[in-house]
Amino acid sequence: EAGVAQSPRYKIIEKRQSVAFWCNPISGHATLYWYQQILGQGPKLLIQFQNNGVVDDSQLPKDRFSAERLKGVDSTLKIQPAKLEDSAVYLCASSSGTSPTDTQYFGPGTRLTVL
Amino acid sequence: AQSVSQHNHHVILSEAASLELGCNYSYGGTVNLFWYVQYPGQHLQLLLKYFSGDPLVKGIKGFEAEFIKSKFSFNLRKPSVQWSDTAEYFCAVVMDTGRRALTFGSGTRLQVQP
User: Fold this and answer.
1) What band does B98 get if pLDDT is binned at 50, 70 and 90?
2) Which of A106, B26, B46, B61 is in the most buried spot, having the most CB atoms within 10 Å?
3) How many CB atoms within 10 Å of residue B65?
4) Which of B49, B95, B104 sits opposite A42 (nearest CB)?
5) What domains does chain A contain, in order, with CATH numbers?
6) Residue B28's pLDDT is what?
7) Domain-by-domain residue ranges, chain B?
8) pLDDT band at B18 (very low <50, low <70, confident <90, very high)
9) Do A43 and B44 touch (CB under 8 A)?
10) Does domain B3-113 have CATH number 2.60.40.10?
11) What are residue A4's phi and psi, to 5 degrees?
12) Contact A5/A24 with Cβ under 8 angstroms?
Protein backbone atom coordinates (compact mmCIF):
# COMPACT_ATOMS: atom_id res chain seq x y z
CA GLU A 1 0.00 0.00 0.00
CA ALA A 2 1.10 3.57 -0.58
CA GLY A 3 2.62 5.32 2.39
CA VAL A 4 2.08 8.79 3.78
CA ALA A 5 2.91 11.42 1.18
CA GLN A 6 4.19 14.90 1.97
CA SER A 7 5.16 17.88 -0.13
CA PRO A 8 7.28 19.79 -0.60
CA ARG A 9 10.29 17.87 0.68
CA TYR A 10 12.34 21.00 1.21
CA LYS A 11 11.47 24.65 1.63
CA ILE A 12 13.61 27.70 2.26
CA ILE A 13 11.94 30.98 3.19
CA GLU A 14 12.82 34.23 4.87
CA LYS A 15 11.46 35.14 8.27
CA ARG A 16 8.03 36.76 8.26
CA GLN A 17 7.09 34.92 5.07
CA SER A 18 4.33 32.32 5.02
CA VAL A 19 4.61 28.65 4.06
CA ALA A 20 2.27 25.70 3.69
CA PHE A 21 2.86 21.98 3.84
CA TRP A 22 0.64 19.25 2.45
CA CYS A 23 0.04 15.70 3.67
CA ASN A 24 -1.86 12.79 2.16
CA PRO A 25 -2.28 9.97 4.70
CA ILE A 26 -2.58 6.26 4.02
CA SER A 27 -5.94 5.53 2.44
CA GLY A 28 -8.61 4.83 5.03
CA HIS A 29 -6.64 6.12 7.99
CA ALA A 30 -8.90 8.12 10.26
CA THR A 31 -6.26 9.78 12.41
CA LEU A 32 -3.68 12.24 11.16
CA TYR A 33 -0.88 13.89 13.11
CA TRP A 34 1.52 16.74 12.44
CA TYR A 35 4.81 16.67 14.34
CA GLN A 36 7.66 19.19 14.45
CA GLN A 37 11.19 17.81 14.72
CA ILE A 38 13.89 20.32 15.57
CA LEU A 39 17.45 19.23 14.89
CA GLY A 40 18.78 17.05 17.69
CA GLN A 41 15.36 16.47 19.23
CA GLY A 42 12.60 13.94 18.89
CA PRO A 43 9.39 14.79 17.06
CA LYS A 44 6.87 16.86 19.02
CA LEU A 45 3.14 16.79 18.33
CA LEU A 46 1.64 19.95 16.88
CA ILE A 47 -1.89 18.78 16.10
CA GLN A 48 -3.95 15.61 15.87
CA PHE A 49 -7.06 15.11 13.72
CA GLN A 50 -9.61 12.35 13.81
CA ASN A 51 -11.36 12.41 10.46
CA ASN A 52 -11.79 16.17 9.95
CA GLY A 53 -12.08 17.14 13.60
CA VAL A 54 -9.27 18.39 15.85
CA VAL A 55 -8.52 16.05 18.76
CA ASP A 56 -5.48 17.77 20.24
CA ASP A 57 -3.91 21.10 19.29
CA SER A 58 -2.63 22.04 22.73
CA GLN A 59 0.96 22.40 21.52
CA LEU A 60 0.19 24.26 18.31
CA PRO A 61 1.37 27.92 18.39
CA LYS A 62 -1.97 29.20 17.23
CA ASP A 63 -0.80 32.78 16.74
CA ARG A 64 1.18 31.67 13.69
CA PHE A 65 0.39 28.04 12.93
CA SER A 66 -2.86 26.72 11.49
CA ALA A 67 -3.91 23.36 10.13
CA GLU A 68 -6.93 21.87 8.49
CA ARG A 69 -8.07 18.52 7.25
CA LEU A 70 -10.83 18.99 4.77
CA LYS A 71 -13.09 16.01 4.03
CA GLY A 72 -11.14 13.93 6.51
CA VAL A 73 -8.38 13.03 4.06
CA ASP A 74 -5.59 15.43 3.04
CA SER A 75 -4.26 18.00 5.45
CA THR A 76 -2.36 21.26 5.21
CA LEU A 77 -0.23 22.94 7.84
CA LYS A 78 0.49 26.64 7.49
CA ILE A 79 2.91 28.98 9.20
CA GLN A 80 2.30 32.70 8.93
CA PRO A 81 4.54 34.56 9.63
CA ALA A 82 7.54 32.26 10.00
CA LYS A 83 10.22 32.80 12.61
CA LEU A 84 13.80 31.59 12.67
CA GLU A 85 12.95 29.06 15.38
CA ASP A 86 10.44 27.39 13.06
CA SER A 87 13.33 25.82 11.14
CA ALA A 88 12.66 22.10 11.55
CA VAL A 89 11.39 19.00 9.82
CA TYR A 90 7.60 18.81 9.75
CA LEU A 91 6.38 15.24 9.85
CA CYS A 92 2.94 13.96 9.00
CA ALA A 93 1.77 10.61 10.35
CA SER A 94 -1.44 8.63 10.14
CA SER A 95 -3.01 5.69 11.93
CA SER A 96 -6.05 3.61 11.19
CA GLY A 97 -7.87 4.38 14.42
CA THR A 98 -7.50 6.13 17.73
CA SER A 99 -6.34 3.28 19.94
CA PRO A 100 -3.13 4.07 21.85
CA THR A 101 -1.71 0.81 20.52
CA ASP A 102 -2.23 1.74 16.87
CA THR A 103 0.93 2.08 14.83
CA GLN A 104 1.55 5.53 13.43
CA TYR A 105 2.99 5.59 9.92
CA PHE A 106 5.21 8.53 9.07
CA GLY A 107 5.81 10.40 5.87
CA PRO A 108 9.24 11.56 4.67
CA GLY A 109 8.80 15.01 6.18
CA THR A 110 9.27 18.55 4.92
CA ARG A 111 12.52 20.22 5.89
CA LEU A 112 11.91 23.94 6.47
CA THR A 113 14.74 26.44 6.69
CA VAL A 114 13.87 29.97 7.80
CA LEU A 115 16.55 32.56 7.02
CA ALA B 1 2.92 15.47 31.42
CA GLN B 2 4.79 12.38 30.39
CA SER B 3 8.38 12.54 29.17
CA VAL B 4 10.86 10.12 27.65
CA SER B 5 14.60 10.08 28.28
CA GLN B 6 17.20 8.51 26.06
CA HIS B 7 20.54 8.89 27.77
CA ASN B 8 22.74 7.62 24.96
CA HIS B 9 22.89 10.35 22.35
CA HIS B 10 25.52 8.82 20.11
CA VAL B 11 26.71 5.22 20.16
CA ILE B 12 29.51 3.81 18.04
CA LEU B 13 29.91 0.04 17.76
CA SER B 14 31.79 -2.42 15.63
CA GLU B 15 29.92 -5.03 13.64
CA ALA B 16 28.90 -8.09 15.70
CA ALA B 17 28.95 -6.12 18.96
CA SER B 18 25.91 -6.28 21.19
CA LEU B 19 23.62 -3.28 21.49
CA GLU B 20 21.55 -1.91 24.32
CA LEU B 21 19.92 1.51 24.10
CA GLY B 22 18.33 2.94 27.19
CA CYS B 23 14.86 4.44 27.41
CA ASN B 24 13.10 5.69 30.52
CA TYR B 25 9.71 7.32 30.74
CA SER B 26 8.01 9.31 33.44
CA TYR B 27 4.36 8.45 33.83
CA GLY B 28 2.73 6.46 36.58
CA GLY B 29 -0.22 5.14 34.65
CA THR B 30 -0.59 2.55 31.93
CA VAL B 31 1.59 3.25 28.93
CA ASN B 32 2.16 1.88 25.49
CA LEU B 33 5.78 1.88 24.38
CA PHE B 34 7.36 2.07 20.96
CA TRP B 35 10.74 2.08 19.33
CA TYR B 36 10.99 3.77 15.95
CA VAL B 37 14.02 3.78 13.67
CA GLN B 38 15.09 6.24 11.00
CA TYR B 39 17.66 4.94 8.53
CA PRO B 40 19.69 7.54 6.65
CA GLY B 41 17.52 9.25 4.06
CA GLN B 42 14.41 7.33 5.05
CA HIS B 43 11.32 8.08 7.09
CA LEU B 44 10.57 6.96 10.62
CA GLN B 45 9.36 3.39 10.82
CA LEU B 46 8.20 1.15 13.63
CA LEU B 47 10.73 -1.28 15.06
CA LEU B 48 8.58 -2.78 17.79
CA LYS B 49 5.91 -1.94 20.33
CA TYR B 50 4.61 -3.09 23.69
CA PHE B 51 1.16 -2.58 25.13
CA SER B 52 0.46 -5.67 27.26
CA GLY B 53 1.43 -9.26 27.90
CA ASP B 54 4.97 -10.61 27.72
CA PRO B 55 7.28 -7.75 28.69
CA LEU B 56 9.92 -9.00 26.27
CA VAL B 57 8.87 -8.01 22.78
CA LYS B 58 10.53 -8.89 19.53
CA GLY B 59 10.59 -6.62 16.55
CA ILE B 60 11.92 -6.55 13.04
CA LYS B 61 15.54 -7.20 12.06
CA GLY B 62 16.41 -9.10 15.23
CA PHE B 63 15.67 -6.29 17.67
CA GLU B 64 13.96 -6.84 21.00
CA ALA B 65 12.99 -4.69 23.95
CA GLU B 66 12.15 -5.39 27.55
CA PHE B 67 9.55 -3.48 29.53
CA ILE B 68 10.48 -3.21 33.21
CA LYS B 69 7.59 -1.47 34.92
CA SER B 70 9.37 -1.00 38.25
CA LYS B 71 12.19 0.87 36.52
CA PHE B 72 9.99 2.77 34.05
CA SER B 73 12.28 1.45 31.34
CA PHE B 74 11.96 0.01 27.85
CA ASN B 75 15.49 -0.72 26.66
CA LEU B 76 16.22 -1.82 23.12
CA ARG B 77 18.62 -4.68 22.49
CA LYS B 78 20.22 -6.58 19.66
CA PRO B 79 22.78 -9.34 20.25
CA SER B 80 24.87 -8.65 17.15
CA VAL B 81 24.66 -5.43 15.15
CA GLN B 82 25.31 -5.04 11.46
CA TRP B 83 26.55 -2.08 9.44
CA SER B 84 23.00 -1.75 8.08
CA ASP B 85 21.74 -0.98 11.61
CA THR B 86 23.35 2.45 11.38
CA ALA B 87 20.41 4.77 12.03
CA GLU B 88 18.73 6.98 14.60
CA TYR B 89 16.55 5.24 17.15
CA PHE B 90 13.67 6.88 18.96
CA CYS B 91 11.81 5.63 21.98
CA ALA B 92 8.23 6.85 22.35
CA VAL B 93 5.29 6.47 24.69
CA VAL B 94 1.53 6.84 24.42
CA MET B 95 -0.58 6.99 27.55
CA ASP B 96 -3.52 4.64 27.79
CA THR B 97 -5.80 7.57 28.56
CA GLY B 98 -5.88 11.10 27.33
CA ARG B 99 -3.57 12.16 24.54
CA ARG B 100 -3.07 9.53 21.83
CA ALA B 101 -0.08 11.11 20.14
CA LEU B 102 3.44 9.81 20.62
CA THR B 103 5.80 11.49 23.08
CA PHE B 104 9.30 10.90 21.78
CA GLY B 105 12.70 10.83 23.38
CA SER B 106 15.49 12.86 21.82
CA GLY B 107 16.87 9.89 19.93
CA THR B 108 20.10 7.88 19.85
CA ARG B 109 22.32 7.96 16.82
CA LEU B 110 23.88 4.54 16.27
CA GLN B 111 26.93 4.23 14.07
CA VAL B 112 28.12 0.72 13.26
CA GLN B 113 31.62 0.45 11.89
CA PRO B 114 32.43 -2.42 9.52
Assistant:
1) low
2) A106
3) 26
4) B104
5) 5-95 (2.60.40.10)
6) 73
7) 3-113
8) very high
9) yes
10) yes
11) -75, 130
12) yes
